[in-house]
Amino acid sequence: MGNREARDILVRDPNKMVALAAVRSPKIQEAEIDAISKSKHVCEEVLRQIASTKEWSKLYHIKFNLASNSKTPIPLVMQFLPHLREPDLRKLAKSKNISQVVATQARRIAESKSGDKWPADVPHVWGLRLNIPALRRENQEHFPIITPKNLTMC
Asked: Taking a C-beta distance cutoff of 8 angstroms, is the pair 46, 11 a contact?
């Protein structure tokens, strides 16, 4: 269906059938899908089509673009959030351009991925456990200073 410039125009067409036909074109390339998934000027159906196409939704940057696009339907974004990396989840949590529901869920998933909570299998010595997340927050990763606040009783 035409060349790249024609598909770029057709994807933004107010008629959903035309926009979907442009996205379903066999000639469309990954770079075009990347730009479309970032765009705020495409209809929701186009973003749904991108999300439902396995070839494109398996790519990390497409997942992140769809999650950060305010036009992407919230249920689709919620499916992608667990697959995003912690720094990207933190960006989404701070973003003012997405739904508050998505930002809150991104923050929750980022916190669970960061390891701020103790897993059951953390080794301990003499009944004391070193609070590594607290040390990381204090930027003392390399030479930790052990203080009573960094230790917890097992």
From this structure: yes
pTM (2 d.p.): 0.71
- Residue identified by tokens 């992407």 is 72
- pLDDT-based confidence at residue 3 (cuts at 50, 70, 90): confident
The tens digit of pLDDT for each residue in 7-48 reads 889 999 999 999 999 999 999 999 999 999 999 999 999 999
What is the distance of C-alpha 140 from the center of its chain? Answer: 28
Residue count (the chain): 154
3-state secondary structure the chain: CCCHHHHHHHHCCCCHHHHHHHHCCCCCCHHHHHHHHHCCCCCHHHHHHHHHCHHHHCCHHHHHHHHHCCCCCHHHHHHHHHHCCHHHHHHHHHCCCCCHHHHHHHHHHHHHHHCCCCCCCCCCECCEEECHHHHHHCCCCCCCCCCHHHEEEC
**pLDDT, tens digit, 9 for 90 and up, residues 114-128:** 765 544 444 444 444
Distance CA 10, CA 42 (A): 10
